[in-house]
């Protein structure tokens, strides 16, 4: 049966396209938690009577769990196929949302977010699906990974306004319970369509032989040792996402502090992530033309421009425009890391290395969400928090530029030899 499945379902086939569409749906449902918790932040802070940094902690720990869980779920998918992690994620996400809605304090709320929603729930619907998608496509791998990853932003585009509506009408607790029932059942049903294993898995021995020459060229990515190259990508991932988290996590609270109300902030977050979907698709096409490193550098530079615009402009119309620009500029950054790994590291190690780099991008989101809240508590303003994000973004751009320079230098040296 396994032989039949791998012969019937080839890479770049109609089945691969259908699977990509289902992957988009699963990631949309599974990624809802990381954006809805931002909308819940003002209500949770008010109900539990805690500081802004403490109210940001559930998001931080959710993202930490999300990152670690992606590596764990990725290894499980490598061994048994992606369907089983998705089923575990569906159960955990459903139970986790209900537990959040029934939490009697910030500790139990945070634990539910970190373990059930992050580590065991949403984690199953991100890194494992990105890795799975990369195995089902050879041509246009960049755009396929971008479509897959855009589900994360589709969740951010449609989730916050829906959550804000139900928070205002039935309350944040009932909203979480309703999300648990819907997301758990929907994700479990969709997971059943992912029984087939990627054809690249069955062809692994032949693939190893075919890539023998390339593997010799990839023993020193960017001219560094494997560990150093991986470490630099991980640091870059943390840096870009610390900067990215500032507007994404705190735009709702920021609008509330400016007197515009959380509903306006939720709409800005939705707009930001909606344009992020466009950005991911466009960046995927760009990535197929110019490569992952150039795409990372381009996205990082443009993200820095958008962060700078938040400093002088805080009018309502200006914030809507800047939110749209921020989403349009930064959406392609995270998927580019998966392409960079596939381009510069041995292909047989791509799954583990992609999962590790994506874990560090999520750590960056976690750190950035908490750090921005802490800076706000210390200064009473988000101005310093935006400056902090800009500094981290400069670190990301510097690493990307240095790696690109080294790649060009190595190519020139090889051509001259």
Describe this structure in words.
The protein has 417 residues and is mainly alpha-helical. The N terminus is likely disordered. The protein has 19 helices and no strands. 84% of the residues lie in helices and 0% in strands.
Mean pLDDT: 87
As a percent range, the share of helical residues equals over 70%
Number of strands: 0
General form: globular
Low-pLDDT stretches are: 1-7, 205-216
Which structural class do the helices and strands define?
Answer: mainly alpha
Calculate the terminal CA-CA distance, rounded to whole Å: 51 Å
What fraction of the residues are assigned to beta strands by DSSP?
Answer: under 5%
Radius of gyration: 21 Å
Summed up, the helix count is 19
Largest sheet: none
Order of helices and strands: HHHHHHHHHHHHHHHHHHH
Salient structural properties:
417 residues; 19 helices; globular
Task: Give me the secondary-structure topology.
Blueprint lengths: L1 H7 L5 H17 L2 H16 L3 H29 L2 H19 L4 H14 L7 H10 L4 H30 L1 H20 L7 H4 L1 H7 L1 H6 L8 H33 L3 H29 L1 H19 L5 H15 L2 H12 L5 H30 L3 H34 L1
Short description:
This protein is mainly alpha-helical and 417 residues long.
């Amino acid at each position: 049966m396994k032989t039949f499945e791998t012969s019937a379902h080839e890479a770049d086939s109609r089945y691969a396209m259908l699977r990509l569409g289902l992957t988009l749906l699963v990631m949309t449902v599974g990624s809802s938690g990381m954006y809805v918790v931002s909308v819940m932040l003002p209500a949770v802070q008010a109900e539990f009577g805690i500081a802004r940094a403490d109210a940001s902690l559930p998001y931080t720990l959710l993202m930490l769990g999300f990152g670690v869980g992606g590596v764990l779920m990725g290894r499980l998918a490598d061994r048994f196929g992606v369907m089983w992690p998705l089923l575990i994620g569906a159960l955990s996400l459903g139970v986790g949302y209900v537990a959040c809605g029934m939490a009697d304090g910030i500790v139990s709320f945070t634990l539910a977010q970190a373990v059930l929603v992050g580590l065991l729930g949403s984690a199953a619907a991100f890194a494992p699906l990105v890795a799975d998608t990369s195995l089902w496509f050879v041509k246009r791998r960049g755009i396929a990974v971008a479509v897959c990853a855009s589900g994360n932003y589709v969740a951010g585009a449609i989730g916050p306004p829906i959550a804000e509506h139900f928070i205002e009408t039935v309350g944040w607790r009932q909203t979480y319970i309703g999300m648990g029932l819907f997301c758990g059942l929907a994700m479990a049903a969709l997971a059943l369509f992912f029984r087939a294993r990627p054809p690249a898995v069955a062809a692994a021995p032949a693939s190893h032989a075919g890539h023998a020459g390339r593997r010799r060229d990839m023993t020193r990515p960017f001219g560094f040792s494997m560990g150093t190259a991986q470490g630099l990508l991980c640091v870059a991932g943390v840096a870009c996402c610390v900067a990215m988290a500032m507007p994404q996590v705190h735009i709702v609270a920021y609008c509330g502090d400016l007197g515009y109300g959380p509903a306006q902030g939720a709409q800005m977050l939705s707009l930001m992530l909606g344009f992020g979907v466009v950005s991911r698709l466009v960046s995927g096409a760009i990535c197929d033309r110019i490569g992952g490193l150039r795409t990372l550098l381009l996205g990082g530079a443009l993200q820095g421009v958008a962060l700078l615009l938040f400093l002088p402009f805080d009018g309502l119309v200006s914030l809507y425009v800047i939110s749209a620009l921020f989403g349009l500029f930064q959406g392609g950054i995270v998927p580019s890391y998966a392409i960079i790994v596939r381009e510069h590291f041995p292909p047989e190690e791509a799954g583990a290395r992609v999962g590790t780099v994506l874990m560090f991008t999520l750590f960056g989101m976690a750190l950035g969400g908490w750090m921005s809240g802490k800076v706000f508590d210390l200064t009473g303003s988000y101005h310093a928090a935006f400056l902090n994000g800009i500094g981290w973004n400069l670190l990301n751009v510097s690493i990307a530029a240095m790696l690109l320079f080294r790649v060009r230098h190595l190519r020139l040296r090889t051509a001259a030899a």
